[in-house]
Design goal:
The chain has 230 residues and is α+β, with helices and mostly antiparallel strands. It is 37% helix and 18% strand. The protein is built from 8 helices and 7 strands, in the order ββαββααβααβαβαα. The strands form 2 sheets. Strands 2-6-5-4 form a 4-stranded mixed β-sheet. The longest helix has 23 residues. The chain starts with a strand and ends in a 16-residue tail after the last helix.
């Protein structure tokens, strides 16, 4: 990672001084300040069909920060899922899903609070649906890995520690117009969902969560896809 990176935070507000300890605890990676290195994505995330928003811009000095990149080859798709299961509210529809949650957290969990900065996929809308389908034994781990690339829904960078917050420098903002960016946001999700539906029509004999639990499969198993970044 570069010594200094540019980050954008999409919001309905202008945020000159992000506050450590504020926000929702049931976000993807727990409490933190959620950003992206893509200004266009930040603007998409800032708007709804009813309102415009703002893309807040920051410089972040990453020197001395302990960084967790969940999209690196050091981690598998199931590390990402396990982190989500610890923080997000999932629809646990079956006994398999209840066992899956416990198994994935125990065998694939990562202590995100040990890091200053985290990079990983943003489990919004489509991505969250894919994760739910996986833990409910609806899609295989190979299909889940492929689904995470659909529609290029984007990565997020999360500021976790008080030390990392202290190294953020506000550089201004730009207006995110709903008439422009809600359309591109919706088109991105619609594309991902259609590609996902098409993928489900294909035959798949891969590993499902029930197979993973029955086989006692761990994080070092070569059948679990790694490096989910493109």
């Amino acid at each position: 990672m570069k010594k200094t990176i540019v980050l954008y935070h999409g919001s309905e507000k202008i945020i000159e001084a992000p506050v450590f300890g504020e926000g929702k605890r049931n976000n993807d990676f727990g409490l933190g300040f959620y950003c992206t290195e893509s200004e266009a994505l930040a603007k998409e995330w800032a708007v709804s069909s009813l309102r415009s928003g703002f893309s807040n811009k920051y410089f972040l000095n990453t020197e001395y920060l302990k960084v967790l990149n969940l999209n690196s080859p050091d981690y598998t798709i199931l590390n990402w899922i396990a982190v989500l299961l610890e923080h997000r509210l999932f629809s646990i529809k079956t006994p398999v899903a209840r066992r899956a949650r416990a198994y994935l957290i125990e065998n694939f969990g990562v202590n995100v609070n040990a890091y200053d900065l985290i990079t990983g996929y943003r489990a919004d809308d489509s991505y969250f649906d894919y994760a739910e389908s996986f833990i409910n034994n609806g899609i295989s781990v190979e299909q889940l890995s492929r689904a995470m690339r659909l529609g290029k829904l984007g990565e997020q960078v999360v500021i976790k520690s008080k030390f990392a917050f202290s190294k953020l420098k506000f550089e201004g903002f730009d207006v995110a117009d709903k008439d422009t960016f809600y359309i591109t946001r919706k088109a991105r999700f619609d594309e991902a969902n259609q590609l996902y539906i098409d993928m489900l029509e294909e035959e798949d004999d891969g590993l499902y969560i029930q197979d993973i639990m029955r086989g006692g499969i761990k994080n070092d198993d070569p059948r679990i896809p790694r490096n989910i970044s493109e």
